[in-house]
């Protein structure tokens, strides 16, 4: 009689069930964290963007009013075009520089390990340190860039790089590329090193010149990595806050205004509904990029 | 052939020079007297001084933010690695319903940028009474570091041979024992890389600190430096001293563990 409950429990908690429970128990804390602090806020942001919420008041549902307001707002328009411009130009430059340097380091050069270490340095620096340093470099007074240009005679006049419209955006781009190219460089280098040497030999035997070998062997070998890197880099650049915030805060007169900085300013003015609408208007493009990159990364991961 | 080699070295040399110059400028500015920063700027200062470091640490009280940053980054690293090791092990070793969905959710969460969520998260933190506290900042950092760590650790755990674990189970280890005694030690390089990435991420975090923290004694290092440049006088010397101090922990990690980091970077595509 007294044994019955034990027997029953054993039947219910079979080895396979026990293993399953264990497996779920291990993953549940992470799942709760993601649901509570990523998924729920994600949905909450969308809800808030349809309300006239301000600090201290929950606000009412106002439909698309915030988005209509933004569509008529010049700063918002500037943020859209600046963000797109910044992402496209930095991606192209990082690809060009990263690929070029990866091809150089991939040769049988003595000391290439040392070059690789140095080329990765900007990535090892904290982003805020990198952009604060560039802020100082660009200064008209005490800045290293003007000093080098005037002392070498390349350009005799001091330029207020971050303070005037024509140079502000290029300056932000230069600093972002400096900090961001190592990620491209090392990803492409790893892909180059995984291309079998025999493929190059075979192409050489077939009489392909260096240019043809690049397009027939190298390009297909790194295409996948470049795709993933471009998607990731676009997501991160479009949503980066530090570079613009620490260099220009979006100025002068919105010349470098981007989405995350505009959303932050919106929050500072305490009009939470509008600020959330700024973030939410990025979501459609972002979701497309996210779906694309998760699909590619999961496929790679399971291979 | 020789010409090609010379040109390669030339190009690489120029690239290294362009990379080192900003770092050089950061260090040299931090060691300059104000006169040589503002009035007679020079590429190589005539006099070196530690005044900027002294001013930063004692007049600006930079020790507190550095300590706060260390507390936040260390806590986030330890907690992330523990939770994500459990989750990654579960994802890699067991087959169960919704596993694919959970995997996708983790990857999605890792790639979701913080700039999209800082508004709702700051409201949320205020509601649970954790705004303006290091705990709140730690919690928010965890939301972004745990998915990253889980994603990366899955890759490392997958390379541990299943047979070793099965042998351990036959020898009487529990599943938990197999994870702690076999899988974790064999993934030590991966754990090291993931710890460094998570530490770096938390150490670098500025946006959430800006939104969540208001009182001076809760500021982290990036936040303290941020407020240094929003004041009226722009103290480039102390600012660059702060930049040097803030990059030291990461630079040391980079030179010690470069090999693991580069491997991890290319394995899991870590935020740059």
What secondary-structure arrangement, pairings included, does this model have?
The complex is a heterodimer of chains A (303) and B (272).
Chain A: H1 4-12, H2 15-49, H3 65-71, H4 74-105, H5 112-119, H6 121-124, H7 127-137, H8 144-152, H9 165-193, H10 197-205, H11 210-239, H12 242-247, H13 259-268, H14 272-302
Helix pairs in contact in A: 2-14, 3-14, 4-9, 4-11, 9-11, 10-11, 11-14, 13-14
Chain B: H1 2-30, H2 34-39, H3 51-59, H4 63-93, H5 99-111, H6 114-127, H7 134-158, H8 162-170, H9 175-186, H10 188-204, H11 207-212, H12 221-229, H13 236-268
Question: Can you walk me through this structure?
Answer:
The complex is a heterodimer of chains A (303) and B (272). Chain A has helices at 4-12, 15-49, 65-71, 74-105, 112-119, 121-124, 127-137, 144-152, 165-193, 197-205, 210-239, 242-247, 259-268, 272-302. Chain A is mainly α and 303 residues long. Chain A folds into 2 domains: 4-49; 78-302, MetI-like (MetI-like fold). The longest helix of chain A has 35 residues, at 15-49. Chain A is flat and about 70 Å long. With 272 residues, chain B is an all-alpha fold. Chain B has 2 domains: 1-49, no CATH class; 61-268, Orthogonal Bundle (MetI-like fold). In chain B, 78% of the residues lie in helices and 0% in strands. Chain B is built from 13 helices and no strands. The longest helix of chain B is centred in the last third of the chain and has 33 residues, at 236-268. Chain B is globular and about 75 Å long. The two termini of chain B are 35 Å apart. Chains A and B meet through helix 2, helix 4, helix 5, helix 6 and helix 7 of A and helix 1, helix 4, helix 5, helix 6 and helix 7 of B.
């Amino acid at each position: 009689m007294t044994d019955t409950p034990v027997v029953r429990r054993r039947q219910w908690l079979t080895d396979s069930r026990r293993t399953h429970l264990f497996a779920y128990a291990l993953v549940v804390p992470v799942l709760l964290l993601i649901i509570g602090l990523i998924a729920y806020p994600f949905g909450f942001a969308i809800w808030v963007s349809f309300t006239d919420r301000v600090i201290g008041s929950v606000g009412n549902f106002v439909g698309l009013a915030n988005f209509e307001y933004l569509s008529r707002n010049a700063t918002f328009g500037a943020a859209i075009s600046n963000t797109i411009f910044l992402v496209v130009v930095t991606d192209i430059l990082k690809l060009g520089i990263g690929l070029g340097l990866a091809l150089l380091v991939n040769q049988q050069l003595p000391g290439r390990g040392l070059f690789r270490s140095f080329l990765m340095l900007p990535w090892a620096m904290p982003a805020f340190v990198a952009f604060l340093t560039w802020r100082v470099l660009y200064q008209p007074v005490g800045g290293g860039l003007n000093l080098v240009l005037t002392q070498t005679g390349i350009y005799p006049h001091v330029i207020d790089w971050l303070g005037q419209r024509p140079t502000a955006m290029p300056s932000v781009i230069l600093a972002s590329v400096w900090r961001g190219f190592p990620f491209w460089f090392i990803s492409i280098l790893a892909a180059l090193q995984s291309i079998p040497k025999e493929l190059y030999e075979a192409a050489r035997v077939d009489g392909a010149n260096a240019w043809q070998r690049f397009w027939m062997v190298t390009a297909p070998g790194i295409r996948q990595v470049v795709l993933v890197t471009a998607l990731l880099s676009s997501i991160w650049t479009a949503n980066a806050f530090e570079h613009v915030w620490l260099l220009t805060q979006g100025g002068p007169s919105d010349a470098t205004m981007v989405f995350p900085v505009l959303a932050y300013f919106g929050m500072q003015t305490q009009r939470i509904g509008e600020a959330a609408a700024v973030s939410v208007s990025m979501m459609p493009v972002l979701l497309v990029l996210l779906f694309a990159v998760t699909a590619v990364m999961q496929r790679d991961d399971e291979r | 052939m020789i010409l090609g080699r010379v040109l390669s070295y030339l190009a690489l040399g120029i690239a290294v020079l362009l990379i080192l110059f900003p770092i050089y400028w950061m260090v040299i500015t931090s060691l300059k007297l104000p006169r040589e920063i503002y009035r007679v700027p020079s590429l190589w200062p005539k006099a070196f001084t530690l005044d900027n470091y002294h001013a930063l640490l004692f007049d600006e009280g930079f020790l507190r933010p550095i300590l706060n940053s260390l507390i936040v980054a260390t806590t986030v690293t330890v907690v992330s690695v523990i939770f994500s090791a459990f989750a990654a092990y579960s994802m890699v070793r067991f087959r169960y319903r919704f596993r694919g969905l959970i995997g996708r959710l983790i990857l999605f969460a890792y790639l979701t940028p913080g700039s999209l969520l800082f508004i709702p998260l700051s409201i949320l933190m205020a509601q649970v009474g954790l705004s303006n506290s290091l705990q709140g900042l730690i919690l928010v950092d965890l939301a972004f570091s745990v998915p990253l760590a889980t994603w990366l650790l899955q890759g490392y755990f997958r390379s541990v041979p299943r047979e070793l674990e099965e042998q351990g189970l036959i020898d009487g280890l529990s599943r938990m024992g197999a994870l702690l005694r076999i899988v974790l030690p064999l993934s030590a390089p991966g754990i090291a890389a993931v710890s460094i990435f998570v530490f770096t991420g938390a150490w670098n975090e500025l946006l959430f600190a800006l939104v969540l923290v208001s009182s001076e004694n809760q500021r982290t290092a990036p936040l303290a430096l941020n407020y240094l440049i929003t004041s009226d006088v722009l103290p480039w010397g102390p600012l660059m001293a702060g930049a040097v101090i803030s990059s030291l922990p990461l630079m040391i990690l980079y030179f010690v563990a470069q090999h693991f980091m580069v491997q991890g970077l290319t394995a899991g595509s870590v935020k740059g």
